[in-house]
Amino acid sequence: MGMSGLYSSGISMPSIAPSFFVCLMWGILLAVVAIAVFVVLVFAVCKLMGAACTFQDVLIACGAHSVFVTFLLLVTFLLFFVNLQLGIVFLAGTLIAWVVAGVLTVQTLVPDATPAKLWISYIAAALITLVVGYFMAGQAFTGSVREVSISYQGESHTIGEAMDLVGSMDYLELLDQLLDEIY
Questions:
Q1: Residue 32: how many other CB atoms lie within 10 Å
Q2: What pLDDT digit, counting tens, does each position of 132-182 carry?
Q3: pLDDT score recorded for residue 124
Q4: Cα 144 to chain center, whole Å?
Q5: Whole-prediction pTM value?
Q6: DSSP letters for 33-94
Q7: CB–CB of 183/174 below 8 Å?
Q8: C-alpha to C-alpha distance for 35 and 12, rounded to whole angstroms
Q9: Residue from 56, 89, 58, 55 nearest 75 by CA
Q10: Exposed/middle/buried for 40, CB within 10 Å: 0-12, 13-18, 19+?
């Protein structure tokens, strides 16, 4: 936006635009996979603790406790388009809210569990979900970045086209470098 003054002086500047639709689709895919993994793991935790709940009970409890977290994820998604650092801060807050909501879910399903066993089991399930999410996030990041378009003087290309010309890259390494640059 600070370079918009150059347009009035007649200098042609390139424009860079992320694909909102592609980012949204990758985000939805990542969320669906993470939710499926989490629900299965919470069901396993409940069964290990001897709860007499069905998979449908776990699904309903997880859904009820995740409404607020889903709203926070939507706000986080939109904030990433506005400011990367603010999006990362909201993502961290959303993860904290997810952990709190998950603990409430397991406590609701297994009210008579000992706190230590409940926490250890839940933390293991949450860590497994985060590991699966981390590997999926690399794919989502790659898919989203490939669709960023750069337009200059009526000609438009995507980063994916440039990546195909350069060859294969390690996208997780690219994500790590990007995060290192931010911090």
A1: 11
A2: 888 877 777 777 777 777 777 777 767 676 666 666 556 566 666 666 766
A3: 87
A4: 12
A5: 0.61
A6: HHHHHHHHHHHHHHHHTT----HHHHHHHHHHHTHHHHHHHHHHHHHHHH-HHHHHHHHHHH
A7: no
A8: 45
A9: 89
A10: middle
